């Protein structure tokens, strides 16, 4: 075949200049389609590696935690199962706690909640004028920072100046972390994405109903209509909106052809989403991270067999989860050198 009329071969400089402002097909071989991939999918928000690659940096006074404390505080109410599992453990620990002259029930409950939410909990020792221990006050873990000097702690609120605690007056309870030994990390971090997805599904469904997309459709008509029928149909559709919607509409077309009127829903994708599947799957992830039996959170079983005996589940949960947590808070006694934290036996707590 000869050359086409008016066509000429572009120079290398012209080719580069044209490619800068045009979409040039790659590997164009006689019009054949070339398929290629860009690699494995990667989540935009997947930055968990940052925790593994850096240590807790400091500003010459205190260390910053590896995970933002304000983010964990906001995530506490992200889903009902996440907060309920934490509050269940908190309630069971508070019920078995025996108040002492050094530590009140209120301070202990706040201590437990901080430990379960942030993976860190702090108590400040107050002394009398003679230097003897007077009481232990709860310090908000969200704002407490560990100093670079051994035994030093700082209170760093967001809207006020930082304050240094008296040296040696703060005890820290920290959940173990495999990356650093300065701050603890909560055990539910692996299920936090599932809890956020649960919240996103709920918000999507709520907005879906609030904006009225569930009533959207396209009325496609191709049949023959008498004069005024289209206007009457339009007015009937307008009247079906607003309060009292989802009303039935009757259309009569004597000369209309088959399939002359079609109703094409435009919100079908939102109406058929896997809302229940997302909710149930993310709920199971959260409960697995907290290791809480579903019957203890009031979850209705989907099958007729149920979840089993709730009493046996409670006993197993107490032995496997609550008793180990009690041992964590007994570390306060080791630091203080006195019995400030004590718990009742399981039989005594059950009888009460």
TrEMBL record:
It comes from the Bacteria. This is Phage portal protein. Pfam families: Phage_portal. Belongs to the phage portal family. PBSX subfamily.
């Amino acid at each position: 075949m000869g050359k086409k009329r008016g066509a000429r071969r572009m120079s290398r400089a012209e080719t580069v200049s044209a490619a800068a402002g045009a979409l040039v097909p790659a590997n164009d071989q006689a019009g054949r389609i070339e398929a290629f991939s860009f690699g494995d999918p990667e989540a935009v928000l997947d930055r968990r590696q940052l925790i593994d690659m850096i240590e807790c940096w400091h500003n010459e006074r205190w260390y910053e935690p590896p995970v933002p404390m304000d983010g964990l505080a906001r995530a506490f109410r992200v889903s009902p199962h996440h907060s309920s599992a934490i509050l269940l453990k908190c309630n069971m620990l508070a019920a078995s706690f025996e108040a002492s002259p050094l530590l009140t029930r209120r301070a202990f409950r706040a201590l437990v909640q901080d430990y379960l939410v942030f993976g860190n909990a702090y108590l400040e020792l107050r002394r009398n004028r003679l230097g003897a221990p007077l009481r232990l006050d709860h310090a908000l873990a969200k704002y407490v920072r560990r100093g670079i000097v051994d035994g030093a702690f700082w209170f760093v609120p967001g809207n006020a100046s930082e304050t240094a605690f008296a040296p040696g007056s703060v005890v820290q309870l920290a959940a173990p972390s495999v990356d650093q030994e300065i701050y603890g990390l909560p055990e539910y971090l692996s299920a936090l994405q599932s809890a956020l997805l649960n919240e996103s599904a709920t918000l999507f469904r709520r907005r879906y109903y609030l904006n009225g997309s569930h009533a959207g459709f396209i009325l496609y008509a191709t049949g023959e209509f008498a004069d005024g029928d289209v206007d009457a149909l339009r007015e009937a559709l307008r009247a079906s909106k607003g309060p009292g919607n989802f009303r039935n509409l009757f259309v009569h077309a004597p000369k209309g052809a088959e399939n002359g009127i079609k109703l094409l829903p435009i919100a079908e994708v939102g109406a058929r989403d896997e809302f229940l599947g997302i909710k149930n799957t993310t709920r199971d992830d959260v409960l697995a991270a907290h290791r809480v039996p579903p019957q203890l959170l009031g979850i209705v079983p989907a099958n007729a067999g149920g979840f089993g005996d709730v009493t046996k589940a409670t006993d197993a949960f107490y032995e496997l989860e609550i008793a180990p947590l009690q041992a964590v808070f007994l570390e306060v006694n080791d630091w203080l050198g006195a019995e400030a934290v004590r718990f009742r036996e399981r039989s005594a707590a059950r009888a009460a």
